[in-house]
Input
Amino acid sequence: MARAYNFSAGPAVLPLEVLQEAQKELVDYKGTGMSVMEMSHRGKDYDAIHQEAIATFKELCGLGDDWAVCFIQGGASMQFAMIPMNFLPRGGAADYAREGTWSGKALKEGQKVAALRGATVNVSCDCAKDIPTRMPKADEWKWSEGAAYYHLCSNETIAGAELKEFPKVGGPLICDMSSDILSCERDYNAFDMFYAGAQKNLGPSGMAVVAIRKSLAEKGNPDIPTMLQYRTYVDENSLFNTPPTWGIYVFGETMKWVKKMGKENLFKLNAEKAKKIYDVIDASGFYRGTAVKEFRSNMNVTWRLPTEELEAQFVKEAAAAGMKSLKGHRSVGGIRASIYNAFPMAGVDCLVDFMKEFERKNG
Ligand SMILES: Cc1ncc(COP(=O)(O)O)c(C=O)c1O
Output
């Protein structure tokens, strides 16, 4: 079996054990005579999978009974639309951080819904265009008073910049954690809602995992279609319609894997993996990190080479050596190594050796 070292930003590498378990259970799930893909979402076998997936995730995040966990199709991008549709009141206001591409997209959706509702959107910071890339500093936030909610992104996947400390705001704090959920120590109870497209640290693509305080979901605007209301997912435990059952099963297996690894071990490994790559960048006059040091992401390491030709050559030669998808996002170029929870240390060691050798030959 030849597994590539897959540095893709998402869909991304999944734990090999999870893939193997899914393979083992693919055609006959625990003696039921059918695949999880084939079972009714109303049956007891699927129900156990569904409940366990939610319970394990809640345990890992330290969430109590006041929280609901929902599976919503349309990825994190659908959340960009659902958040303002649910929580932006007519004539009201919401605050958005513009830290990079993704929070910028969330802001755009907020502005669209605000225009429909005669509401206002305040931009609480704007460092999306800064080079080197970064997140807002603690004293830069300009949160307004009395907003219906405050939205930000914890890790800008394209920029390779991560927020290490979260601001205190005067109302519901909502965070897009698509690319760094469950990757480091974090107080999830400091938020009122957080969400992630599943395809990076949680499982296969096809849904967002949304954790929301039940009290917040209840406050959502009732004048929008049923499937767009959070309360529908909370009240029906994400079973109002047919949920993405296979994705939820693999998500549950991935959460069990995180639990088995031990969160603390995993978080420590993540920091070590990132440090190894940043150390090579810092020791070199050839590679140049894209992000300001204090905001460097432990999930998406981004850097440049002296020329675009050398970057293309780097990506090509790395792929030939079994290290795939190192090309930076098409909007910014450069190199990006996405090293999510399931990315193995051996792959980082392989990359680091390759980087040193590439610099020796071309530097
Ligand atoms: C931080 C962040 N937010 C949102 C998204 C969009 O996710 P999706 O493709 O699930 O809509 C991405 C995708 O890479 C992301 O990295």
